[in-house]
Amino acid sequence: MTRPVTIALDAMGGDHGPSVVIPGAALTLERRPDARFVIFGNEGEVAPLLDAHPKLKAVTTFHHTEVSVKMDDKPSQALRYGRYKSSMWRAIDATKTGEADVTVSAGNTGALMAMSKFCLKSMPQVDRPAIACLWPTVRGESVVLDVGATIGADAQHLVDLAVMGAAMARVVFDIDRPSVGLLNVGVEEIKGVEAVKEAGRILRESGLPHLDYHGFVEGDDLGKGTVDVVVTEGFTGNIALKTAEGTAKQIGEYLRAAMGRSLMSKIGYLLARGAFFALKEKMDPRKVNGGVFLGLEGIVIKSHGGTDAVGFASATELGYEMARENLMAKVREMVAATARPSAAPAEPQQVARAGSDQIEQSDR
Question: Are 126 and 165 in contact, with CB atoms under 8 Å apart?
Fold first, then answer.
């Protein structure tokens, strides 16, 4: 992509709305001068903030919307009153119509996923989209997915996650064959639930050209950076993500308390201030903010709802990179190269149960 990257923003999403989104976009523009923006939100709230950032305003097309999706709305509620007219829907639709190359929102995750699926549709051969995030490690960063889009996974869905995660890793890390591991309770092939073991077998035997299947990895491998891509289903992935975030905050509190405990500890902090600053920067969750919705016919980035302008800028810049490096083409290429085994016809009872489960999932 040689032309400027246009980013559609849901200005009303997140805990803080335009007060974070607009300054975050301004930060992105400072670092990505060729970025352009299409912003959707309430004019009364957004316009004064755009006026305060004239450089951003000069490269922005603004669309007024009366409706915004609340953070506590159920996906089905958001779809009923927000389809076609909310700031979230219209930002997604801008990517669908080609007005923008990528959509970024800090809004309600369930509503954003539901609207993205309805508006953009899933890619052929991908049954369920996933949320992928960048995970800081001692080696640098890894891609981890799914971190909360859907609960549970069969073997083929885990294989799809491996393929899409590897495509994202090729873009982010600029490597031709990212290493991929399946998160499991042990590295031995006999361990784990059947879906994980079967997915491992498929990945071992498939010989996919653009990924290097490492095998099973355990929880401590997430921080080690053992592989470029860690694959798990959404329930486990979301718990792992929230646990890591909580642990980072816990360590930070421990360090602050220890450094102020005595005169000697304060002197020690002054002597090692540079090292502690580097540690703080490394552990700052704002630096890796942004989950990529993979498996859709368009790029959507979910920012943490409670982040500040620095964190939102990280999510926006992640979207910029995904569009600039043509993530969609790489995902399509790798998904098309993956042979999917033909599934046995489902029993009538299974079909009915699946439909019921899909309706229930939409309200989670």
Answer: no
d(CA 82, CA 134): 30
- The encoded tokens of residue 124 equal 């052929």
Per-residue burial over 138-148, b if 16 or more Cβ lie within 10 Å, else e, is eeebbbbbbbb
Beta bridge partners of 292: 132, 301
Q: What are 45-66's pLDDT values in tens digits?
A: 999 999 999 999 999 999 999 9
Two structure tokens written together for 27: 């930060």
CA distances from 316 to 27, 131, 179 (A): 10, 16, 26
3-state secondary structure of 6: strand
Contact 329, 304 (CB under 8 A): no
Specify the pTM: 0.82
Instruction: List, for residues 211-256, the tens digit of each pLDDT value.
Output: 999 999 999 999 899 999 999 998 998 898 888 878 877 877 777 7
Nearest CA among 35, 41, 32 for reference residue 13: 41
